[in-house]
Amino acid sequence: MPEASSSSGTLPGASRPLLDAVPAQPAACGTAPAAPGSATGERIPPGTVSPRRRMRLWRLLPTPTGTPFTFAYAAVLVGTSLFARFADPGVVASALRGSSTDVAHLAHTPVFVLVASALWIAGGITSPFAIGFLFVLTALERRIGGRRTAGVFVLGHTVATLATEVPVGLSVMAGHLPASSLHRLDYGISFGVAASIGALAGLLTPWLRWAVLAVVGGMLAEDLIAFADPMTSWGHLLALASGVGTWPLVRRWRLAPGPSAA
Known about the structure:
Blueprint: H1 26-29, H2 51-58, H3 68-86, H4 89-99, H5 103-108, H6 110-117, H7 128-144, H8 146-173, H9 190-201, H10 206-226, H11 230-244, H12 247-253
Helix pairs in contact: 3-7, 7-8, 7-9, 8-9, 8-11, 9-10, 9-11, 10-11
């Protein structure tokens, strides 16, 4: 009967080496332990974002399947912003005047101008409200769904617009403001974004909720104190308050956690 080879480290009739029972040491084997976040044990170079972390960062932005309302709305806003930037200035000015939610337009075509005015970004796509739109509405839609997010946005946009323009009309009728105030240019997404911030705050942890409201409310109050455009500044605060008023609803609407959306 042939002898078992001592160099193989295998018992006669056994199929596994004797040293298989000893845990391998990384230093001895020349391998490193699996990096956190890597299910396959693949080594992730230092400074590289793990796939799981990258997925979480990606969820901050709107996607066609995960947040269809925010994604489609953002695409429209990009289109109108490019039009405002590159089209003939006279054509752009005419389009903005026709979309303005001033008293004259609200008295004749209220639904049309309420919709049309929300298709423009005052200040362009680099304005703070444009950036807030992207991240705030994405976060809100992932928590309560697209239709309900649209409802919060429309609520803030409508309430703040009427609350600031109706007093202008009454003041003109009373003779306290000139008739030209009936045609005050008013358009943009800022009222809807402010309401969405207020609503989203109700879904955050308490310390973060009050921190967001304190920072955003402080910035809006500072604009009001500056008195550069008091009607719009009041509208922003009213829209933020209308979003806070939706807390009982948005907490009831909150979606159950599920698989990550694409």
